[in-house]
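dumping this here before i forget
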Amino acid sequence: MSQPAFFHIPSGTVRFWVLIDGLPVGASIGKETLHYRYKPNATDDDPMTTYTANSAEIERAVRRRVAGGSTEPVMLRDPDVRDGADGALAHRPHRAALPHSRHAAAVEPVMTFQQDIDSIRSRLLEAESERNGWRMTGLQEKYIEACSTVEALELQLDERLTQQAGQAPAVPGSSTG
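structure:
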């Protein structure tokens, strides 16, 4: 990598780069996430030591996020590294391919285009509410993370609406002026 990982004191994160398709992708993981995921019983854990000892799994989490559409900088959260340190997540399909419920039937009905748009709108409203809550707390890292989620959902909604407009049948008598 062009730059080694380092602990960024103001944000409380380890910042690092992962080489993906020959390009370095910037990423970060909070000291709290490192602590609770890898050393929950420790009282004197060092974020850099914890990161170094688990960098392979953490890099896999970054690769999954990028494969799922995340853009730089990738801010890893608890759910990104929550499951097995043995790399079990690396072989799991992207979460969008999984059923929404653990109790869902093996074959899930396909969402219509309008249902997809409605779902994105609903998630966007939830994300905006969460973002506003983080803004009130003053926790900048969480607020920025929530802003990124809102932006990603807005982009996803715009893409779906553009696709829908492209698929809409022409309305007789309408002009394209």
